[in-house]
Amino acid sequence: MTTAPAQAAGTRAEYTLVSLRDIQEAAATIQDVVVRTPLLPSEPLSERSGARVWLKPECLQRGGAFKLRGAYNYVARLPGAKRSRGVIAPSSGNHAQAVALSAKLFGVPATVVMPTTVTAAKRAGAERLGAHVELAGTTTKHRYDRALELAARDGLSLVPPYDDATIIAGQGTVGLEIAEDLESLGTVLVPVGGGGLSAGVVTAIKLLHPKARVIGVEPEGAPKLARALVAGEPVTLEGTESIADGLLAVRIGSLNLAHHLAYIDEVVSVPDSAIKEAMRFLLDRAKLVVEPSGAITVAAILSGAVKLNNDSVAILSGGNIEWQGLRALLGDE
Q: What are the φ and ψ backbone dihedral angles of 116, each rounded to 5 degrees?
């Protein structure tokens, strides 16, 4: 992997950041597997924000979320002998489905370790794709520790969810597509969980459109990036709480933070009430089914948490929510 060495200001360790070439190589690796999702113009959001707003609907991606980009890039680069023994992934849901699908495409077994609180849609999605599902606790650490145990016991290759250069490069192809599809780019809004998507997107955008603004969006109950940016290093939250279950990591990845410190313009947070409003807005006005984690960027626009300029893009990171989940969140509104 060709990378550009860089010292991210404020960090205590030196990290090698993912380069534009890394992201372009990832794009070549995954091009025959992932859907190149379109940019959809949103007249209602444009009218409300005063800027031209486009939606990047990764909810329409195979596996229901952007995660296939990084997972397939990682699994494709494993040595054949290692890959054939099988892969394992800790995940709150979307990464599990992406790894399960990647393994299925390569014809190798997959195990995924999910929280005991995993949504029915995300567990069923992984199982439909042929993965063996293990449940372990409720935190990222619970899942990761169990995945490491099983990997060592069964000789499986662990596919990390976000704190890895190959994963970041794969997720960065979302930003690469945006940069290629939109000549005039003002602002890009990206959800922030563990930081794989946001690190990859901010890198691609800033290297191709250095004047564009990239804003990370977190739930109010999970401000792991905001705290880390202030501290200059990853901060472990005591706990997280939000309906955006895919964004509840208690700690931003170390390599991911280095990319944010180098490139991110701003990070904002929104309450769950705004996320619910955004989900309903996307259903009613864009005809898109988007899970809470994916709708958070639109929530930032509707709530006034961000001010947009020129052509702006809201990344809808995933749509893995089932009918009962939608009814539970929105049925009483």
A: -65, -15
Q: pLDDT per residue over 147-163, tens digit each?
A: 999 999 999 999 999 99
What domains appear along the chain, each with residue ranges and CATH number? Answer: 3-66+165-330 (3.40.50.1100), 68-158 (3.40.50.1100)
d(CA 40, CA 181): 11
Distances in Å between the alpha carbon of 176 and those of 207, 266, 312?
A: 10, 20, 15
Catalytic residues: 67, 317
Closest CA to 317 of 180, 221, 229, 218: 218
Does 287 score more than 90 pLDDT? yes
CB burial string 164-195: b at 16+ within 10 A, e below: bbbbbbbbbbbbbbbbeebeebbbbbbbbbbb
Q: What is the CA radius of gyration of the chain?
A: 18
Helix (H/G/I), strand (E/B), else coil: 90 = strand
Whose tokens are 């279950």? That residue is 245
How many CB atoms neighbour CB 128 within 10 A? Answer: 12
